[in-house]
Specification:
Blueprint: H1 2-23, H2 26-31, H3 34-71, H4 78-118, E1 124-134, E2 139-149
Antiparallel strand pairs: 1-2
Helix pairs in contact: 3-4
């Protein structure tokens, strides 16, 4: 039963990760508008900051409890062990989440900034399929959109 739960959890995590990678892929970022790039950059910066805070708070809490254990080594009461246990059991997984968040979002930020720098060099012509709603006939008609960026 434990193996099934672990495999299901890993499949769930992998599916979420693959969805996020589609949004931040170089192909998708090249097609995105300047406003969408700004939105993606803002999200990546926010996630990187969150990962950094998560890592820092975890390291500080674990360090403080270890320092407390060295300062008062003869206090083996249950009240002294509870904060240490909480810091270790909550801090280690938080570090394991925070460090990858920093690394992944740093790469995303670099990729977005690189796309933003090269996005508008020269002229770029795009022919895109679209649909247009016709009020008279009450239906959609196909069309082609020409987009010129410079």
């Amino acid at each position: 039963m434990k193996k099934v739960i672990i495999v299901a959890f890993l499949i769930f995590i992998i599916s979420l990760t693959s969805q996020a990678q589609k949004v931040y892929s170089a192909e998708n970022l090249e097609k995105a508008s300047q406003e969408e790039l700004d939105l993606y950059l803002e999200k990546a910066l926010k996630n990187k900051k969150t990962g950094k805070k998560l890592t820092n708070v975890s390291v500080i809490s674990i360090g403080a409890t270890i320092l407390y254990a060295f300062v008062d080594p003869f206090n083996h009461e249950l009240g002294a062990l509870i904060p240490f246990g909480i810091a270790v059991y909550a801090g280690v997984p938080a570090i394991a989440v925070g460090i990858p968040m920093q690394i992944v979002n740093k790469k995303r930020i670099e990729r977005i900034n690189e796309i933003k720098k090269t996005a508008y060099k020269g002229f770029k012509f795009d022919l895109l399929p679209c649909t247009q709603y016709n009020l008279a006939t009450q239906n959609y008609s196909p069309c082609i959109k020409l987009r010129i960026t410079f």
